[in-house]
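note to self — DONT lose this again. spent like an hour looking for the file last time. sequence + predicted structure for the chain T wanted, 261 res
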Amino acid sequence: MALLERFDEGAVTHLRMNAPDRLNALSDGMLAALQSELDALKDDTGIRAVVLSGEGKAFCAGHDLKEMTAGRQAEDAGRAYFADLFSRCSRVMMSLRALPQPVIAAPHGIATAAGCQLVASCDMAVAAHGTRFGVNGVNIGLFCSTPMVALSRNIPRKQAFEMLTTGEFIETERAAELGLINHAVPADTLLDEAKSLAEKVTSKLGSAVKIGKQAFYDQLEMPLDRAYAFTGDVMVENMLWRDTEEGISAFIEKRPPEWTQ
């Protein structure tokens, strides 16, 4: 049984974590499977959006604590093992951001610790009603420092700090209010709603979405004046494309665009 299942529907790739007995924990094997698929997708020009979901009763319960305990005992009190583990996990999270295609998380049940980080690292999220989100490591004496990176870039800092220091869950509606997710939907329509959002993305000019995703994240890290200068250059490049010229002409002429990409 594959830890991570992939199936494609047109220009949409579905990645489904498939370790329901471990609540789709980010084990060494799961991290490797995610990294492998993300590495393959970055060069797949036929895929324009990705939906990430989990099999079973939960989206993802974070790191595999039993596996972490075994690693601590096996390798020099764990320092080398833990350094490697968190490096590999961070690489997966950064690969989601660097992927040319927008990634939509479709969480249900629970998304805790690194599972919550996974949701926050995706570009968008559609969650089932009743999903609970938390960075709960503090409850067992382990502050969720790496999940904090993505979380604090998604929601206001005081709310992020409260979640990190209390270890309490937030419900789906609160997650939507704070901006951790885009939409909350009935559980039985979760994947259909995520797919619908993905298909809206795939209907746009793929090269424009690609350049836009990269520019979106790059400009967030810049001072205001530099961000405007940078995005102005991006728009100049975008405006000079043949497909953009066609898109503008089609809009003016009230017809569907005939894009080459």
